[in-house]
Amino acid sequence: MKHIIYTVVVFLMASSSKGHKAIAQTTSDGLKQPTATFITETLGLTHCESAVYDVKNTIIYASLIGGSEEGDGSIATIDLDGKLINAKFVSHLNDPKGIAITKDRLYVSDVTELVEADLMTGQIIKKHSLEGIQFLNDVAIDLKGNVFVSDTRTSHIYQLDTNGHFSLWLADEGLDSPNGLLIQNNTMYVASWGSQPSGGRVSKIDMTTKSIDSVTAIIGNLDGIRPYDKDRLIISDWRSGNIHLVDDKGHTQQILQVGQSVGDIAYIQEKKLLLLPMNKQSRLLFYRLE
Length: 290
Description:
Layout: E1 21-22, E2 36-42, E3 48-54, E4 59-64, E5 73-78, E6 84-93, E7 96-101, E8 105-110, E9 113-118, E10 124-128, E11 136-141, E12 147-151, E13 156-160, E14 166-171, E15 178-184, E16 187-192, E17 202-206, E18 212-214, E19 222-227, E20 232-237, E21 242-247, E22 252-257, E23 266-268, E24 273-278, E25 283-289
């Protein structure tokens, strides 16, 4: 049985960009808040969940959960103009979600397995799993090449180290159902789905001490988290469809609203291009953010 979990719809996205709201203003710190302009969209991406950009090969990788059959999930490749290259670059997955890449590997979470694939061929190399894993979600890689993956259902984070050893890295209820992961230097940022009705927050983990500190108040059911500039992060709220900027003091500004089920986002800084996977709508949205 497929393990797709859907939440009751609060907002529905219109089938075109007309329903999207872009917000432009200046923040309380005097930083310019960017304006989001819709560019294009890639359609037919069955329950698109995550997007990652490969700068070396100028390719976007997107995870597609697929339909109701076992093994019908995949990783698609898409060009920067939104053209679908290959819907099944990595095939025979179940419910793939977060993706992270190195120079020669692609890692994707797939329910209870962290799947390792060849970045050039899409061939699956190995699957990593442990007893007790329930719902793997986002994937992040540190500067040394260690791979981390969140388990939203158990509030655990697992690590695949550079020697190929897969183990539990952190188990803490303070992770509050972790979803999105982002590593910058020795800090891991976590966007939490949250255990409360109002959702979760952004937290940060000192990767040496593994101490957890809140960055923001509770915002919503958070999914993706990516760097915007040296001062701010971009986060997505799955339930509301809101896209926010967050600074290091925890100040949060909404910059865009799309439909419910916006997933694990990507931001290409050098191109000022924001990619928004829309799960329920089975599409990938492209926005200029400047």
